[in-house]
Amino acid sequence: MLPETMGGLVAAAGVLGLCVGSFLNVVIHRLPKMMEQEWHAQCAELRGETTAAEPISLAKPRSRCPVCGHQISALENIPLISYLFILKGKCAACATRISPRYPIVEAATGLLSGYAAWHFGPTLQTVGALLLVWALIALSAIDFDTQLLPDSITLPLLWLGLAFNLWSIFADLSTAVAGAMAGYLALWSVFWLFKLATGKEGMGYGDFKLLAALGAWLGWQMLPAIILLSSVVGAAVGISLIVVARHGRNIPIPFGPYLAAAGVIALFWGNAITQAYLGTIG
After folding, report:
1. How many helices (H) and strands (E) does the chain have?
2. Which of 98, 195, 197, 259 is spaced 20 to 30 A from 79 at the CA atom?
3. What is the dihedral of CA 241, 242, 244, 245, to 10 degrees?
4. Cβ distance 110 to 17 under 8 Å?
5. CA 183 and chain centroid, separation
6. At how many degrees (to 10) do helices 151-164 and 3-46 cross?
7. pLDDT in tens, 139-189
8. Is 214 helix (H, G, I), strand (E, B) or coil?
9. Do 171 and 61 touch, CB atoms closer than 8 A?
10. Contact criterion met (CB below 8 Å) for 33 and 42
11. pLDDT digits (tens, 9 = 90+) for 58-106
12. Cα–Cα distance between 244 and 116 in angstroms, integer?
């Protein structure tokens, strides 16, 4: 592929990633609220009551400042540019500081999208990698905020991975099915062993489904590397939070972001890491 053509593909994927990152910020903020609203509505229905709360969706109501209610205009919603140069990190109406996580999510999505296009080139692997990375970014931020990994993302992600591998895009279908089964059962087994030993729940069912989804995308061979990478990073961050930030030992730490980060590493460099490891021990 010609360098200029590849450059155009990478640039297009990066710009698309920035736009998708802006949308992911909406998903990260609203999806937990939509779930909570649905739970309240179901409870009210069981009690024979009605709810008058304004329905929340990914499209409505329009994005607004949570402090003053100022509606975000199109000019104020340009990925990265609006935050850095137009709003300068503050609400245009009340000057309340806007969380830097919004541009961080947009920048991370744009950079990873551009890298996926460069890494895989003009192939179906790029399309799949983009969808997987976008979903993992959303799941990471939602789990970090709420310690929830919504089924509305994890389950479609699992089936989408199997669908891509009908054509062996990342792994052959039998390997992908085995990966989904092994991914779920691996953490399910750890969950019950820990619960039987301590009487406590060490992780949520969403973690099982997320690892199953990664197994469906990348195949069962990648699961050991994903589990090892996520455990090492999770342990390092957890110890740092306890020692440096005085994070309470009894306060749960979400595992989803570490699984997602390990999944991204395995997506791009999993084969190289596995081969290097096997070469070392061989």
Report:
1. 9, 0
2. 259
3. 60
4. yes
5. 17
6. 140
7. 999 999 999 999 999 999 999 999 999 999 999 999 999 999 999 999 999
8. helix
9. no
10. no
11. 888 888 888 888 888 888 899 999 999 998 899 888 988 999 999 999 9
12. 34
pLDDT digits (tens, 9 = 90+) for 179-232: 999 999 999 998 899 888 888 887 889 999 999 999 999 999 999 999 998 988
Distance CA 274, CA 282 (A): 12
Q: Which residues of 146-167 are buried (b: 16+ CB within 10 A; e: fewer)?
A: bebbbeebbeebbebbbebbee
pLDDT at 55: 80
3-state secondary structure at position 64:
strand
Q: Which residue has the tokens 């003053």?
A: 68
Q: How far apart are the first and last CA of the chain?
A: 36
Q: Hunting for tokens 């069962």 — which residue is that?
A: 220
Helix, strand or coil, per DSSP, at residue 71: strand
3-class DSSP assignment, residue 90: strand
CA distance 183 to 220: 7
For residue 135, what is the enclosing H or E element? helix 124-146
